[in-house]
DNA sequence: TTGTATGCGTTATCAT
DNA sequence: ATGATAACGCATACAA
C-alpha cells in the first residue's frame, strides 16, 4: 500500500499538496494533474486510520442488537447501511450479550462515532444514560428510554386501531386479542388502539377477550385455545405480532378450523413469514427498514453538528390486507 | 477522553511505561499499581485508531453480503460476530450493491484486516481474485470461486441424498424435484444426490419429474402445478430451498390438495419459515450460523499467520423431519 | 498556490 | 525496569 509520502515523491510535490487535492482544496490545475497521475500509478488509497486519528472521527457507527436471528434486525441493518453508505460511513454490528454494557465501551475504544441501540430492554436504561453523559451520540430504535435520548419508534396505537377497525368493518363484533406482555409500553399502546376502535364503533370492551402472550408462536397457539373456549366464541383475533398470529393459525388448524372462514386472524409486524404462511397473513406493517434509515440519518445529523436537538420520531404503520382476515385475495 | 500522555503524567511515569502495563510487559509491581490507579481515575480507554495505525491492523473484519432481508444472512452474521467478539475483533457489515467491487476497495481503505464474502455471484470472480493478488485475506461463504480462495460451504450432494432417501423410505417412488437454476453448481450437486439415492434404491430416474425453479415462492407454486399434470402424478416433491417448497404448498392448497396426505413436501435450508408454515416443513438443515463461525475462525487464523493454507471446508447437513413429509409429528 | 512543521495517540527501538 | 524518541499516515496552521 502506497502512502501519501510516496505519492508526493512521485508527483514531485509535498505531501501537504497531495492532501489538498485529496480533500478538494484549491490547487493549480497542473499540480492537480500531476498528483492524480501519481495516485493512479501507485494505486494509492488513503489510510482511514491515519485520517481518522488526525480528524478524530472513525467514519464508523455501531449498531447494538440483541440478536440477528429473527427477521426484524435484517431490515434494520439494511436501512441503516443504505444511509451510511451514501455518506461514506461504515457500520459495525455487534450483539449485546448478557449484561454487557461493556460493549459500548468496547465500541468507544474502537472509536465508532456514534451508536444505534436496538435493545434498550437488555442494555438497560442506566447504561444508555451513561453514554449520554459521555456525550456519545446515541439513537434508540423501537424502545423507550425516556426523554433524554433520541429515539425512533412505530405508532403502536395507530397500528392497533387500524387492525381492529378493519375487522370491525368486516362485520366482526367479538374480536379476541393476543397481546404482548403487558409490561411493555407498546403492549399498552396497542391495547388502547384496540379499545378506542371498539368504542368509536359502539362496541363493548370485554376483558375476557384479551389474553397475554409472550411473542412466541407457542403462546399464540396456547392463547387461541383459551379464546376458543369462550361463549360465544370470538370470530376474529388480533395478535400483537406475527409469530403469535401464526401460532394461533396453527392451533386453529389442529382443531380442524379454517382461516379465515371460522376465524379471521390479523397480526402485527409484517415480518417475512407473514407472506409465507397459508393463508397469507393480514398484518400491521412496521416500516422496519425505514426505522433503520431514519435512525441513521438522525445519528449522522447529530454527528455533523447540524442538528443537536433530542428528537423522538414516530413512524406510521399501514395495514397490509392479505387473506387471513377474509377480505384479501389469495395471492 | 484521556490519553496515554495524561495517564503517564498522573502516574508520574513515561508513556512508554504506561504502554507496557497496557500490553502486559514486565513492569515493577509498584509502578504497575501507580499506572493502574491513574487509568482508573481518568477512566482511560486506549484509542483504537492510534493503536491500529501503529500496529497496522484495525482489529476489524468486513462482511459483504447481497442483502440482509432473508433469513440466511442473519445467522451468518451471528456466527461470525460470536467468534470475533471472543477475539476482540469487530465486524463491519456491508451490502454489495450492483456491480460494485469498489466496496472491497472502500473496505481496504478503511483498513479492515480481512473480508468474508457471502456473495460471490454478484461481486464476480475476477474481483475476488484481484483481492487475492493484493494479499488481502479473504474467505468465501457458500459460493465457489475456484481453488485460489478459501471457502466454506455446505455438502449439497449429501443433503439432497438424505432428503431423497427419506422420501423413498417413506414409500414414495415418484418424487418430483423443484430445482434451483441449473447454472449454479449447488443445483447440480443436489441433483446428483437425488439421482444417486434413486439409483441406490433401484428407482428409475425420470427427467420429467425435474423442474427448474428460481428460488422464489412463486416459482415453487408454478412448478408444482406442472408436476401435478404428470401422469402418473408424483406423490412427493423435493424443493431445493424452503421458499420454493412453501410456494409448492401454497399451490397444492389452492387446488384443494392436502399436505402431506396428497403430496409429501421436503425443502432445503431449514430457514425460519420452515417452522412457521403449516404443516411444519421437513427440510435439509444447513448449519448457517456455523458457516459464519467457521469462516470467521479461518479468517482469523489467516490473519494471525498461524495458518496460511488455502482450505475449502465443507459442512454437513442434517435432515429435520417435521410434518410436511408425512413422517413427523405436528409439533 | 505551495512547502514546512507540528499534532493526532499508540507502539517500538534504543539507550540508560 | 524505565525513559527519550522515532515511526505509523494523514491533516492543518503557519510561512513563504
Summarize the structure.
Chain A is α/β, with parallel strands linked by helices. Chain A has helices at 4-11, 15-22, 29-42, 48-55, 73-86, 102-109, 120-123, 125-133, 156-169, 185-200, 217-228, 242-254, 272-276, 288-304; strands at residues 60-65, 90-95, 114-117, 138-141, 150-154, 175-179, 210-212, 236-239, 264-269, 282-285, 312-315, 318-320. In chain A, 45% of the residues lie in helices and 16% in strands.
CATH names the topology of the largest domain in chain A as: Rossmann fold
Number of domains of chain A: 3
Q: Which structural category fits the helices and strands of chain A?
A: alpha/beta
Shape-level CATH architecture of the largest domain in chain A: 3-Layer(aba) Sandwich
The rounded Rg of chain A comes to 26 Å
| Number of distinct helices of chain A | 14
Helix content of chain A: 40-55%
The level 1 CATH classification of the largest domain in chain A is Alpha Beta
As a percent range, the share of strand residues of chain A is 15-25%
Q: Please, what is the average pLDDT of chain A?
A: 92
Please give the order of strands in the largest beta sheet of chain A.
2-1-3-4-5-11
Biggest β-sheet strands, sense, barrel of chain A: 6 strands, parallel
Amino acid at each position: 500500500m502506497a502512502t501519501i509520502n510516496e505519492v508526493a515523491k512521485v508527483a514531485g510535490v509535498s505531501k501537504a499538496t497531495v492532501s489538498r487535492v485529496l480533500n478538494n482544496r484549491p490547487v493549480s490545475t497542473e499540480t492537480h494533474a500531476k498528483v492524480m497521475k501519481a495516485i493512479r500509478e501507485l494505486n494509492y488509497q488513503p489510510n482511514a486510520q491515519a485520517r481518522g486519528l488526525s480528524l478524530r472521527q472513525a467514519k464508523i457507527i455501531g449498531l447494538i442488537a440483541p440478536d440477528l436471528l429473527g427477521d426484524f434486525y435484517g431490515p434494520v441493518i439494511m436501512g441503516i447501511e443504505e444511509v451510511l453508505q451514501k455518506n461514506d460511513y461504515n457500520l459495525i454490528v455487534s450483539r449485546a450479550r448478557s449484561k454487557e454494557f461493556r460493549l459500548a465501551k468496547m465500541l468507544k475504544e474502537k472509536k465508532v462515532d456514534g451508536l444505534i441501540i436496538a435493545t434498550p430492554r437488555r442494555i438497560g436504561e442506566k447504561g444508555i444514560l451513561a453514554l449520554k453523559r459521555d456525550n456519545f451520540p446515541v439513537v434508540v430504535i423501537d424502545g423507550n428510554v425516556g426523554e433524554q435520548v433520541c429515539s425512533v419508534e412505530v405508532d403502536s396505537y395507530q397500528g392497533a386501531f387500524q387492525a381492529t377497525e378493519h375487522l370491525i368493518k368486516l362485520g366482526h363484533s367479538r374480536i379476541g386479542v393476543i397481546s404482548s406482555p403487558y409490561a411493555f409500553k407498546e403492549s399498552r399502546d396497542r391495547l388502547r388502539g384496540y379499545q378506542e376502535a371498539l368504542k368509536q364503533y359502539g362496541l363493548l370492551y370485554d376483558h375476557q377477550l384479551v389474553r397475554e402472550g409472550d411473542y412466541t408462536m407457542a403462546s399464540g397457539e396456547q392463547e387461541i385455545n383459551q379464546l376458543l373456549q369462550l361463549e360465544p366464541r370470538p370470530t376474529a383475533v388480533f395478535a400483537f405480532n406475527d409469530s403469535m398470529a401464526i401460532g394461533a393459525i396453527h392451533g386453529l388448524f389442529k382443531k380442524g378450523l379454517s382461516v379465515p372462514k371460522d376465524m379471521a386472524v390479523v397480526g402485527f409486524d409484517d415480518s417475512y413469514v407473514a407472506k409465507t404462511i397459508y393463508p397469507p397473513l393480514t398484518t400491521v406493517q412496521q416500516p422496519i427498514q425505514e426505522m433503520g434509515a431514519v435512525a441513521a440519518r438522525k445519528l449522522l445529523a447529530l454527528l455533523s453538528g447540524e442538528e443537536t436537538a433530542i428528537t423522538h420520531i414516530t413512524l406510521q404503520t399501514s395495514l397490509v390486507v392479505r387473506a387471513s382476515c377474509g377480505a384479501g385475495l389469495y395471492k
